[in-house]
Amino acid sequence: MDIQVLGSGCPTCKKLYELTSQTVEELGIDVKVSYITGAEGMDAMLALGAMGSPVLAINGKIALVGSTSSKDEIRRIIENGAITPPKTGGCTCGGNC
């Protein structure tokens, strides 16, 4: 699973990164949360089609935009599989194998 927090580096972006990192740690998931800010973060947001900041992206898809939300909401997004895992290898089943 790839989790990214994208934004300008403002306090709201930093807060979303902190909440997401804490949530991942509490869930015991062995995943690194990337924090991409500045021009690189803004470019990544635009590439995803996000028009607000900050952005929580999971597996290259927007999961949350424009707020810090709460650990409960972030947990729900991750636990409920709101974002499907990326395909691996040569699999073409769309994640159904």
Query: Averaged pLDDT, please?
Result: 83
Q: Name the strands of the widest sheet in spatial order.
A: 2-1-3-4
Radius of gyration using CA atoms only: 13 Å
Give the SSE string. Answer: EHEHEEH
Q: Biggest sheet, in brief?
A: 4 strands, mixed
CATH architecture: 3-Layer(aba) Sandwich
Tally of alpha and pi helices: 3
Strand content: 15-25%
Shape descriptor reads globular
What are the low-pLDDT stretches, counting only 5+ consecutive residues below 50? 82-97
How would you characterize this protein structure?
There is one protein chain. The chain is α+β, with helices and mostly antiparallel strands and 97 residues long. It has one domain (3-79): Glutaredoxin (3-Layer(aba) Sandwich). 38% of the residues lie in helices and 18% in strands. The chain is built from three helices and four strands. The protein has helices spanning 11-27, 38-48, 71-79, and strands at residues 3-6, 33-36, 55-58, 61-65. A four-stranded mixed β-sheet has the order 2-1-3-4. The longest helix is centred in the N-terminal third of the chain and has 17 residues, at 11-27. The protein is globular and about 30 Å long. 27% of the residues are buried. The model is unreliable at 82-97 (pLDDT under 50).
How would you sum up this structure in a few lines?
This protein has 97 residues and is α+β, with helices and mostly antiparallel strands.
Task: For the structure shown, list the relevant keywords.
alpha+beta, disordered C terminus, 3 helices, 97 residues, Glutaredoxin, 4 strands, four-stranded mixed β-sheet
